[in-house]
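Q: My labmate handed me this sequence with no annotations at all. I'd like to see what the chain might look like in three dimensions before we decide whether it's worth expressing. Could you predict it?
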Amino acid sequence: MKSRREGLDAMDVDIQELRKKKFTIEQIADHLGMTVGQIKYRLYKKNPFPQAVDKQPNPSVSRKKPALPNYYGEQEIVLMVQGPTVLFTYWEVTWPLMSLVSDFLGAAYEHVTKVIRIYDVTDIWFDGTNHHGYQEAMFEDGTDNWFFHNMTPNRTYITEMGILRDNHYIPLMRSKPKATPNNQEAGEFSRLVEVTPSVSSERTKPRWFENFSTYSIY
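A: Here is what I predict for the chain of 218 residues:
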């Protein structure tokens, strides 16, 4: 015959097993023919923090948040201002454009020489050729962002991502213009914010794009 202590221990085991099955305290009490107070007392012996006895894990907290995707399938290049002398650009090249470039050059896209450029287009309606000057850098396949340092404050810039063919530069994507802030103390009648002219989609599209896009990707 089981002793009273053994019976109590067995009851505790039953309670813990039902808790693992996600039974509520009320359901456990009904299942074992006990009162809710008796169940809470036994649980309290195992966990001396009664406010946490009936607390269930919050799925929204315990569930791991999904990671942001690296790419969104949208062909674009974006220029951002980090400070008066530093700009940052990032881009995404979609598979159809990669295929067009490969067919056009007769080479795998990963072997194509890729270039990032930034133009000073202050007070200029940029058409791809007129500018105050530019910087460029070649980058390895897989690169999708670039920092431009030592830029001039209070100027307007546009960035392009392109390729080289026989040392001839061909732009693929062009950003909208961004103006760097002034890093000097404003005068009494100086504008606090430089205004960038509104930009149409034609201005930010390389001029060759219409002809180039007629190549089939199949």
